[in-house]
Design a protein that fits this description.
Keywords: Oxidoreductase. GO terms for molecular function: oxidoreductase activity. Helix content is 41%, strand content 18%. By secondary structure, it is α/β, with parallel strands linked by helices. The protein has a single domain, classed as NAD(P)-binding Rossmann-like Domain (Rossmann fold). β1, α1 and β2 form a beta-alpha-beta unit. α4 runs parallel beside α6. The radius of gyration is 17 Å and the shape is globular.
């Protein structure tokens, strides 16, 4: 997988934020990228015509979409970066509907795509990356069930790896947990809410976090992870502005 030329990568949630940066990076590395999203988005032309981007407008949470697209494109790489923006409120100001939105969206998407990756199955040597969140470790008291949903994404990614191993499938599954960044819509909303909760400015709140994670850094990190030897890949990683760090 060190050479992505001629390989097919499906990026789910490719229209914005980290997902857009990831799709752009894989196309730049020579891959044919199938950019799955519910809304259309422009993508830069890869330098030198290295790779390409094929838009697929679809609801990734639809239980029929994952199997259909995996059958049609037969990818070597799948990156799941789609999810809902949580309702930023303290617990007592949540309703069950707002509290559970990420369970109904993020976890549902991961479940359907991981299940289909095992059932299809993906071809030997394939890689699957689930983009979870650093909130899965640190918690997120202003975002309802978001942190728990993201932790569940990490858990079921591990379950998928166990099932692949039991079935003798040569597929590598990893969960990547990005740290909050104001360079995405979700991150901007969260930074604003937590800064206000702490009585600080957004600038002060973000300064404590060190180098900011950008979509470009996220894209480069995902390409680096896919190009690594499968035997060296960890089940989980923290992703910050400094890059990937293996989780215990």
């Amino acid at each position: 997988m060190s050479d992505l030329s001629g390989k097919t990568t499906i990026v789910v949630g490719a229209s914005r934020g980290l997902g857009h940066g990831i799709a752009t990076a894989f196309a730049g590395a020579g891959s044919r990228v199938v950019a799955v999203s519910r809304t259309a988005a422009p993508f830069p032309e890869p330098a030198g015509g290295a790779g390409s981007t094929v838009p697929e407008l679809a609801d990734a949470g639809d239980p029929t979409v994952a199997g259909s697209l995996l059958d049609r494109y037969r990818p070597e790489v799948v990156v799941l970066a789609a999810g809902a923006s949580p309702h930023m409120r303290p617990l007592q100001h949540q309703t069950w509907e707002t509290f559970s939105v990420n369970w109904q969206t993020d976890v549902r998407i991961a479940f359907h795509w991981l299940r289909e990756a095992l059932l299809t199955p993906l071809r030997p040597g394939s890689r699957v990356i689930v983009v979870s969140s650093g909130a899965a470790m640190a918690g997120s008291p202003l975002s309802g069930g978001y942190a728990g949903a993201k932790a569940t994404q990490r858990f079921i990614t591990g379950y998928a790896q166990d099932e692949a191993n039991r079935a003798g499938l040569d597929i590598t599954f990893s969960a990547v947990l990005p740290r909050i960044t104001p360079l995405t819509e979700l991150g901007r909303s969260a930074a604003r809410a937590y800064a206000a909760r702490d009585g600080r400015s957004e600038e002060e709140y973000l300064k404590q976090m060190g180098p900011l994670l950008t979509p470009e850094i996220a894209g480069s990190a995902m390409v680096e992870l896919v190009r690594a030897e499968a035997a060296s890949v960890a089940p989980g990683y923290l992703l910050t502005g400094a890059g990937l760090k293996k989780l215990p």
